[in-house]
Amino acid sequence: MARVITFGTFDVFHVGHVNIFKRAREYGSSLIVGVSSDELNINKKGRAPIYSLKSRMEIIEAIKYVDEVFVEESLELKRQYILDKKADVLVMGNDWEGRFDEFKDICEVRYLPRTPSVSTTEIIEVIRDIR
Ligand code: CTP
Fold first, then answer.
1. At the topology level of CATH, where does 3-130 sit?
2. In this structure, which residue's CA is closest to atom 14 in ligand 1?
3. How far away, in angstroms, is 49 Cα from ligand 1 center?
4. What is the mean pLDDT of residues 103-121?
5. d(Cα 84, Cα 42) in Å, to the nearest integer?
6. CB of 28 shorter than 6 A to ligand 1
């Protein structure tokens, strides 16, 4: 059965993250998650994650839909990670629509609709505004 891979920061873990794991896992028999390093997140989103890489990995590992986690050190290594992990399917939320089509030569690429009305950025902003 197919091996599914997905990537992300998964900071301040929320239900949108659970949902993408649950739906990704339906495309195969195992789900492998590449978790952005703290440095990669700073480059990608312009801020350090709230939770450390170690905590984010511990949380993700504990999710029943996830079979394996590893650290994603660089966006440029994505092709290599997909090959190394022998992934058959790459799943991402549709905020990334089209961005990973270049990997269609080595795996199936699927973009799933984001869970509405929840994001790490929004949670951080809401907490910041509490007085
Ligand atoms: N995701 C999702 N639904 C959401 C939020 C995230 O399906 N409501 C998916 C993203 O599309 C991505 C993965 O979860 O494939 C990891 O997203 P991440 O960037 O870590 O989470 P966000 O909440 O989008 O974080 P931020 O607000 O910092 O961009």
1. Rossmann fold (3.40.50)
2. 17
3. 13
4. 97
5. 25
6. no
